[in-house]
Amino acid sequence: MKFISILFLLIGSVFGEIINTWENIDYAKVVDLSKSFVKERHIIKAINTGSEPASTYYFAIPKNVSESIAFSFASTIDASKNEVPMDSHIDEIEGGVYSVIQLPFPIAPKSKVSFAVSLVITNQLEPFPRKQALGDIQNLVLTTNKAPYSAYPTKSYKIRFQGPSSAKEVKTIGATDPFGWELKSLEGGFSYDVTEESFAPYTESPVSLVYERNLPLPYVKDLRRDLWLSPRLNTLQVEEHYDYSNKAAELISGFSRADWMNKRMSTKSSPAITAIHFPLYKGVEIKDIYFTDLVGNVSTSLVMENNLIVKPRFPIFGNWNYNFTVGWTHKLSDFLREDAEDKDEYLLEVPLIGGSTDVVYEKVELSFYLPEGAEFISVQSPLANTDYSISEVYSYLDIFGSHTKVTLQFENLVVDLRNVKVGLKYRYTLAAYLRKPIYIGLSILVALLSYLGITKIDLSLSK
Amino acid sequence: MVTINDQGYITVNDRVLKLIKSLLIVLIFISITIAAVSSRLFSVIRFESIIHEFDPWFNFRATKYLVHNGFYKFLNWFDDKTWYPLGRVTGGTLYPGLMVTSAVIHNLLAKIGLPIDIRNICVMLAPAFSSLTAIAMYFLTLELTNDSESIANGTAKATAALFSAIFMGITPGYISRSVAGSYDNEAIAITLLMVTFYFWIKAVKLGSIFYSSVTALFYFYMVSAWGGYVFITNLIPLHVFVLLLMGRFTHKIYVSYTTWYVLGTLMSMQIPFVGFLPIRSNDHMAPLGVFGLIQLVLIGDFFKSQLSRKVFIKLAIASGVVIGILGVVGLVLATKIGLIAPWTGRFYSLWDTNYAKIHIPIIASVSEHQPTPWASFFFDLNFLIWLFPVGVWFCFQELTDGAVFVIIYSVLASYFAGVMVRLILTLAPIVCVCGAIAITKLFEVYSDFTDVVKGKSGNFFTLFSKLAVLGSFGFYLFFYVKHCTWVTENAYSSPSVVLASHAADGSQILIDDYREAYYWLRMNTPEDAKVMAWWDYGYQIGGMADRTTFVDNNTWNNTHIATVGKAMAVSEEKSEVIMRQLGVDYILVIFGGVLGYSGDDINKFLWMVRISEGIWPEEVSERGYFTPRGEYKIDDNAAQAMKDSMLYKMSFYRFGELFPSGDAIDRVRGQRLSRSYAESIDLNIVEEVFTSENWLVRLYKLKEPDNLGRSLLTLKDNEKKLATKKGRRLRVNKKPSLDLRV
């Protein structure tokens, strides 16, 4: 038996791992375009056409989006529409990219299974045209597959778009469209009239859809989120450094303040970012809010109904940049709890990213600055981080000890992940708590005593 | 400690009294420090912790460079981001004292566990040093009055010293250059000035090599910090010279002067920017001359004691003539050969206030180089200005070495303060000393009620007059504090980078256009973009926008400034040639017409014209910018040269569109541009890329040259033709029919 399985493995590696055992008998694709990134949900009902039970489903991901997946998620759907998460991971197999889904149990031949795959994809939306005049309505173009792109044959297919109420198909150079489907408006979106009944595996049908979206495409090139823990003051200081940009349509000519004022652009929605919102957590105390950039304080920020609204120095048009720092202070106790077993161990749970309502992050660096003398135990993140480092940082009055800095790096995140929590465990004893004030007191005492000693020394030459 | 003797008198132990006294003095100093520092914090409280004005931005940038790159790299710093394409040997053309001081403080604090941001150190440096100035002032006054009983007797000496410290702590004349954020050389230089003088007076009094070496050390620190060190360089020899003339030559003076001169000069020559100036430049000839003179006096003194009177007089006359001739010939020859620098313009402008206006407009164009109006003496020094002569008069009562010093200082500083507004700063300390002396003397006399108490003179009028004088001077003192606080708060606490204005409901609005535009430049232009602006904004662009500039507040190259001025003053066609030669990418203009901000470029325009006229008199003429009736107009009737000029067009381009229903009104100059005229102001060679919220800063980009080599001026004309009805049809026909493409 072992021999056979090894043989299969070998065959698999030579002839291909993805054995065509499935057929999609029902496939619905829902594309959500209501934000500045694309959310896709694929609801699939598949039947095992093979002769053996199968437990792995290879969900094919088109090449053009495989680099831009911020997040993917798969779950089974049972008869009463309940969803249970499944194990899945993205892998490159034989030159194609797949989300390898482990079904919770092997599916017998001729049996069916229902599941959903959700993808959050960034970098898919582009302004069309790329440059436009101030005040023009912006259109975005999305390139996606019209037909199901699957490793397996598909029967019965539906596709629907959410967000904009209508869109127009544009022809791309060199692309041939095998499907002449009509677009029709729906409530809260639009869809295609699918006329074909069956689709071969890996059907490529790229289509570019243009739709109106007169809003910016906010984009953070780099976010450095620093969290300073101070049990002494019971504070959690948050400081976020943003490299902000906008992927919306660029201005065709220079920015004219006269046009901006005459068209009353600051009161209208436009592709320019005029304010950045940071939703604050409800029920959590927040104070000492500041908003600065490299040349000093920016006086235009305000807190309104659980929203910190930050107005950049200038409206950020397409391809313009602005960097800034916002910070505030929370109560540490709102985020910290003691370990049940060991009273000296603490568990901190904080959101991975802080603010904004609609934004894509290219790079996020999350750093924890532990209290002086605290011992780092572990850090846990539900999302895979690309890098991880521990270093020592010296801050105010850190003469006899430093802050341990734990840094996690992430890439390609979207604002929807702001509820994802990162957990950090550290040990902080009473001795460590007392050490700093004692040492500071001692060093001041030593300084005073040595001053006294020095004044007693007589250096005069005449005796 | 406290005992009651058999006669019922309470006697307190000597040591306890001393302790109480020193505690009181410490308390007073703490109060002075609090007063001095807190009044300088108005700017931080009302605005923010920000570097002020223009020069401090350079100092701040240099300090950051020093902190990041170390001292040796700093000394060898060649800055290619200014004076493009020439660059500036920055390390060799600045006074490093200020930057080194902040960097040392920064590093020291970091060593003891206080890693304070360098910006905050720079912002707080001036207030911190102001409290040191007050302490130095205390010791200086104490030293000056020390050996005279008629200037201030016994216990009054400390009172006078404390008064001078208080006055100095909050005098607006000093605060004007030392509020938080005013990170300029003067911030530490005034402290050093006081300390140097204190040690000098002490050295003269004691004839101590130690104290004159300390004087030299602080003199060196001063040289490294501020160009105003020349004031010490000349004041000390003048003091010695006057003492010699008064026949007060002693070996004490000889020892202290020669020690200070030799050590101080050698040390000052270690500063790259100073280099060999102390033996070449005219500013430094006085100490050299006095140094020679004092040797002769010493020799003379020696001969006088050895020879008979008759022989000595003959010798003195003969050697005097020989040395006089040799000296003059030497001076003339050295100037001719070029060993001694020619007399500089700034020097002449110190003597003749009109010199600069005629010969060097660049110096005259700086507002702080203008002659001082009378009002600003009162504004900056309040009631001290009229107590000042009284104090000087008291010094005449007993001409001690210290009193002579006060008199000389007063005379020199008064003169210079009258010539240049900013030199009120050097006058302020001596005014505080004299004011303190005068007021102490006054209080000494009028607060003496022993006669009244003992019932010797029951004259009601004596009592009344005493109380009246005390009351009025008490009021003056009170008013002084009020005045200083008011002036500090309202006149000297604006960072000038951020402007404050008031909304209709009285709340404060910050106008942050400068930083808005600078930050836009920093964020949205290529890192090597070169920005042309008038030199006032050079340091700020370097500091805040971090972009290359052509001219800045260093103003070392008049021709370069004139070139920029010419590019602003001439027509588009000519300007394009200049800008392409310079390599301009962006142009920044300050326009206050919307906001009513009078310090804008149009109001500075005449200086640009004058400076460029100085170099190209045949191409630019100041007269051409005035209307035939001699008015400076910017409306429909403006002079043709004005209307054609690049700066004018860039300021008013699309200004008319702000007034959709009528004529455009310039709120600074109160002039009206008719609608049709305002719309006709057009630009061809540059493109507007950014204008700040209140139109204060406008940024333009020099267009790329046309691919086919056509002139940008004709191109725009063609475009306009196409924009007409007929042209539009033409254009539509020309357009090829293409499908929508991605």
Mean pLDDT of chain A: 86
User: Whole-Å distance between the termini of chain B?
Assistant: 97 Å
What percent strand of chain A? over 45%
Query: Low-confidence parts of chain A, pLDDT < 50 over ≥5 residues?
Result: 1-15
Percentage of helical residues of chain B? 55-70%
Number of domains of chain A: 2
On the 0 to 100 scale, the average pLDDT of chain B is 87
Q: Which structural class fits the helix and strand makeup of chain B?
A: mainly alpha
Structural class of chain A: mainly beta
Helix content of chain A: 10-25%
Protein name (chain B): dolichyl-diphosphooligosaccharide--protein glycotransferase
GO biological process, one term (chain B): post-translational protein modification
Cofactor (chain B): Mg(2+); Mn(2+)
Pathway (chain B): Protein modification; protein glycosylation
How would you explain this protein's 3D organization?
The complex is a heterodimer of chains A (463) and B (742). Chain A is mainly β. Chain A contains four helices and 34 strands. Chain A has two domains: 21-212, Sandwich (Immunoglobulin-like), CATH 2.60.40; 218-437, tricorn interacting facor f3 domain (Immunoglobulin-like, Sandwich), CATH 2.60.40. In chain A, strands 5-4-8-2-1-13-16-15 form an eight-stranded mixed β-sheet, with no helix packed on it. The longest helix of chain A is centred in the last third of the chain and has 27 residues, at 430-456. The radius of gyration of chain A is 29 Å and the shape is globular. With 742 residues, chain B is mainly α. Chain B has a domain at 513-726: Rossmann fold (3-Layer(aba) Sandwich), CATH 3.40.50.12610. Helix content of chain B is 62%, strand content 6%. In chain B, the strands form four sheets. In chain B, strands 6-5-7-11-10 form a five-stranded mixed β-sheet, with helices on both faces. Chain B has a two-stranded antiparallel sheet with strand order 1-2. In chain B, helix 1 (14-40) crosses helix 6 (118-145). The longest helix of chain B has 31 residues, at 460-490. Chain B is globular and about 110 Å long. The A-B interface holds A 128, 141, 143, 170-173, 208, 253-259, 261-262, 293-299, 313-314, 320-323, 394-399 and B 48-50, 112-115, 510, 512, 515-516, 518-520, 522-524, 544, 654-655, 657-658, 660, 687-693, 695, 700-701, 739-742.
